[in-house]
Amino acid sequence: MAISVLLADAKPTSRQELALQLERDRGLEIVGEASDGRQVVDLARQLRPNIVLLDSAIFSTDSLVVIDQVIAASSDTEVIVMIDGADMDLMRRLMRAGARDCIMRPVAPDDLISTIRSVYQVGAKQREAQSNALPSHESKRAQGEILAVYSPQGGAGKSMLSANIAVAMARAAGEGGKAPRIVLVDLNLQFGDIDLMLNLSPQNTIAGLAQKGHGGIDAELLEQYLTPHAESGLKILVAPSTPQYAESITVYTVEQVMETLRENYDYIIVDTPSQLQDTTLAVLDSAKTILLLTSLDLLALHKTRTALEMLRQLYEPEKIQVILNRANSDVGISLEDVENVLGVQMRARIPSDGKIVVTSINEGKPFVLYNETTTIAKRINNLALELLGRDPIAHDESNNGQGGGFLKKLFK
Ligand SMILES: Nc1ncnc2c1ncn2[C@@H]1O[C@H](COP(=O)(O)OP(=O)(O)O)[C@@H](O)[C@H]1O
Ligand SMILES: [Mg+2]
């Protein structure tokens, strides 16, 4: 059987040239061509080619993100990237993102064909070895998953949810089985507050990391900039101590941080600001899941709908999961209204509990640890377990499935 190849290059002339080169070998078959990042991922998902030959300057999406998404979309596919010139740093980042090989332009036809063949063979061998050795779903997750908590509305509860869900996931880690490693990143570069919420006294922040790591960030350096939360085992990359440092943190830094964390952590929870800065978008791009928080008020709903429309243009619908916060507020808007307006079912509902939440924030003691038996803690704990791929704990009040009936119970 021929090795199937998807050509991904913005320039039609360059695609033609590659096609001519590959046609010389009957053992290779070009099954599709793509000119921008989104198309590459879509076609990889549909066609599941053996090889994606990707130009590093592909349009619309960062090539690192494209690699990541292609691998996630088709486990049968290996990515080879063509780059202009010997940029070692770029090559390193491409390989870390999951590219199997990089070829420098101009590409000699024989080199191209032999690279494709050897990448295909190595990939096929590895897959065979993996499927024999590791039957579980964990075999696929060589790299950590990014969960971004986002809402276009300030005060929606992003930081409250991020801190508590990260602690809940970290604490779940020790309960038998292989312990997943959890890290929380405070991406509120101007006004981060996770350190307060978790009562941390950070020695280092992302600002120091950006400064120290401007030549490149690796896992060892990054580890020195994480602050541990002793009670749960969670690690935190804390936001800068003052707003003026925010500028020094570029998209490049954030991308490097995310890539590097994915090597050593199974889940990376990111608390984001409401503004869609380029750094926020970089994280939303690389996230496996976006937890989009909304609440039962008209302004929040309006903003959520606008945000959802935008996110749906950028990402697959499964990536965006809407969570209703302060779900039991009696404010004349029902859950059905919310689901109708947004056109989605809520992934989870978090009740309002001023006393617990505010005391927990004031004392820096996350309620999932210190007030475990409250409904709000149980809901967040169960969401954490679900995100870890474990079974939620059945509580009398909780829902264990999707659908309409149980949702109504929420509104007495
Ligand atoms: N479910 C809830 N019940 C009660 N208070 C909440 C709840 N969610 C958030 N809050 C309160 O709302 C405020 C804003 O929450 P926060 O997590 O800082 O929002 P964001 O990070 O989205 O700006 C906090 O003071 C918190 O006490
Ligand atoms: Mg916040």
Proper CATH architecture of the largest domain: 3-Layer(aba) Sandwich
Number of domains: 2
- CATH top level label of the largest domain: Alpha Beta
Which molecules other than protein and nucleic acid are bound?
adenosine-5'-diphosphate, magnesium ion
Spatial extent as radius of gyration: 23 Å
Query: Which residue ranges are poorly predicted, with pLDDT under 50 across at least 5 consecutive positions?
Result: 137-141, 398-412
User: What is the CATH topology assignment of the largest domain?
Assistant: Rossmann fold
Average pLDDT metric: 88
Order of helices and strands: EHEHEHEHEHEHEHHHEEHEHEHEHEHHHH
End-to-end distance, in Å? 62 Å
DSSP strand tally? 13
How would you characterize the largest beta sheet?
8 strands, mixed
Global morphology? globular
Summarize the amount of helix as a percent range: 40-55%
Tally the helices: what do you get? 17
Helical/strand content category:
alpha/beta
Strand content: 15-25%
CATH superfamily caption of the largest domain = P-loop containing nucleotide triphosphate hydrolases
| Biggest sheet, spatial arrangement of strands | 8-9-7-10-6-11-12-13
Describe this structure in words.
The chain is of the alpha/beta class. The chain has two domains: 3-124, Response regulator (Rossmann fold, 3-Layer(aba) Sandwich), CATH 3.40.50; 145-393 and 401-410, Rossmann fold (3-Layer(aba) Sandwich). Helix content is 44%, strand content 17%. It is built from 17 helices and 13 strands. It has helices at 12-23, 37-47, 63-73, 88-97, 109-133, 158-172, 194-197, 206-212, 219-224, 251-264, 278-286, 298-314, 335-342, 354-363, 367-370, 375-387, 405-408; strands spanning 3-8, 28-34, 51-55, 78-84, 101-105, 145-150, 182-186, 227-229, 234-237, 267-271, 289-295, 320-325, 348-350. The strands form two sheets. It has an eight-stranded mixed β-sheet with strand order 8-9-7-10-6-11-12-13, with helices on both faces. A five-stranded parallel β-sheet has the order 2-1-3-4-5, with helices on both faces. α2 (37-47) packs parallel to α3 (63-73). The chain is globular. The structure holds adenosine-5'-diphosphate (ADP) and magnesium ion (MG).
